[in-house]
Amino acid sequence: MTGQNQGGGPQQSRRRGQGELEGLVLAALREAPGPVNTAWVQGRLGGDLAYTTVITILTRLHAKGAVSRERAGRSFAWTPNADEAGLAALRMRKVLDAEADREAVLASFVTALPPGDEQLLRDLLAQAAEEGEG
């Protein structure tokens, strides 16, 4: 009865977005005892994703610099380089790098921030400057 539930109607499966899947894979890798293979990640995610889907997600994360891989026989062992916040930062940098007028993009971004976020950004920049001096 593929595609149907016990009641005979079609199954209602929610399709997850790429960002959500990437977050789930990163979370699984952060729980790993060390570098792990694709099958380990697939099992950690509950096995409802195809092996090829997990490989695709890991490969995309690798291209973004969010994970690293090392040869393990004919496959790879995967390790996280970034958490979800780091992945979001990588996406933001990619968008910024693609724009011709970097200053205008940053200025528009900062002026659109709510006051609390603007102050947080100021605090983080001041902290980064202090750490750079020390």
TrEMBL record:
One Pfam family, please name it.
Penicillinase_R
What keywords appear on the UniProt entry? DNA-binding, Transcription, Transcription regulation
Q: Which InterPro entries is this protein grouped with?
A: BlaI_family, WH-like_DNA-bd_sf, WH_DNA-bd_sf
Respond yes or no to whether keyword Membrane is given for this record: no
Q: Domain of life of the organism in this record?
A: Bacteria
Protein family according to the UniProt entry: Belongs to the BlaI transcriptional regulatory family.
Q: What is the protein's name according to its record?
A: BlaI/MecI/CopY family transcriptional regulator
Source species: Streptomyces peucetius
Q: What is the lineage of its organism?
A: Bacteria, Bacillati, Actinomycetota, Actinomycetes, Kitasatosporales
